[in-house]
């Protein structure tokens, strides 16, 4: 009787063990699938990070280009301002010369009429 009871216990333990092995296999398969999904997500995120890094590098280059262009435009503006001041001075001198020439022309005209 003892042997029969031990046999039944062993049979029950074996059945439970088989169920545990089946459950562990199912769990292992599920975790394997989940691992694949996580790896695919990681690869996707790594690609996104690489793309973002490329865009950031592009934007940094563009910012540097804009800064250079801005600096050049400020230099051009300063140069143009100097040219404007110089041309304004020349225009004032030309106006004064024209006024003197007109006065001289009027004076000579007056002498010719006399």
Question: Overview of this structure, please?
Answer:
The chain has 114 residues and is an all-alpha fold. The chain contains one helix and no strands. It has one helix at 2-113. The chain is rod-shaped.
Sum this structure up briefly.
The chain is an all-alpha fold and 114 residues long. The chain has one helix spanning 2-113.
Task: Report the order of strands and helices.
Answer: H
Distance between the termini: 163 Å
**SS class:** mainly alpha
Give the C-alpha Rg. Answer: 48 Å
- Overall form: rod-shaped
Record keyword descriptors for this entry.
114 residues; mainly alpha; 0% strand; rod-shaped
Write the layout of secondary structure elements.
Elements: H1 2-113
